[in-house]
Amino acid sequence: MEFESILLPGIDAKRPLVIAGPCSAETEEQVMNTAREVAATGVKIFRAGVWKPRTKPGGFEGVGSPALKWMMEAEKETGMYMATEVATEKHVYEALKYGIDMLWIGARTAANPFAVQEIADTLKGVDIPILIKNPVNPDLELWIGALERLYNAGIKKLGVIHRGFSTTDKTVYRNLPQWHIPIELKRRFPNLPIICDPSHIGGNRTMIHKLSQQAMDLNFSGVIVETHCSPDEAWSDKDQQITPAALKEVLDNLIIRDTIQTTEDLSVLRDQIDDLDNELLQLLAKRMRVSREIGYYKLEHDMPILQTKRYDEILTDRAYQGERMEISGKFVKQVLEAIHSESVRQQMVIMEREKKQSTQNEETAL
Ligand code: PEP
Ligand code: MN
Asked: In the chain, pLDDT over 90 holds for what percent of residues?
């Protein structure tokens, strides 16, 4: 897929691309006040949710179409582009009818191929930028699938929003960032604009600056930040919304590192990394050879492959050792779990091969 790099006229490729505005459009006054203050910070694209996906019925489900009228008034007064979330064919028709400039597909909708296809079919022949949030579940292929559905419908002004992934664990985040997922997406589609949504990842206004900085350091294109003229009184997501003044502070304090490093120093260090990776691979291959020998031993002595107690000891011991070497224990555990699962796979291959061999021998004997 080849994407257009300029999503809207006047919004150039210079980082960060900023989208800001309230989680939801609530009243005409709230939309206008927030838009005026957001525009004063220099932001060019305004967001507001008009239809809100809620976990349970009965909560604030958005104002619907009247809010589109307020947004277009805000556009007329401030000159900002307007963006909103769509989840159905009807939302798309309504948003386009009013003249909304940019649409995004929410995380719950992105997880549903039928809904994404319906939106894609509705957008055939329409030249409008579309942003796709990551699906609530950490499934990169599903996220790419959503992109493909829109791309195949002829939409070339595409971007994605990384808003983190649902988890039932109690963490400091509302949605786990799992940065490796957007990083892999960027690796596969280097020209695709990736925008970070620190509001929905953090779930708390105190985390917005740090997450935005992390996104910039990972070379993301921009941020989408929930901004409200009176965040404590917001009708949805109030803990994570910030005032336009706080937004300005976040943006003013972002450090944008844009230098592409090609100095000698770095190439020496990169050579070292290549050598070390090579050594790591050789060590891993050696470790697997030993695992296979253990596999033959277990086979001869009729022992099961998985020796839980031993595995547990290895994990605890190595994690502790890692911590002492200034490597996170959690990371060491993840690496060892991956190594262990490859060892188990290799030992299973040995057992299977042996089983096949003995059945063949039995057959020949018959
Ligand atoms: C939103 O942007 O307000 C929203 C509902 O986000 P998400 O789809 O990421 O939950
Ligand atoms: Mn929200």
From this structure: 81
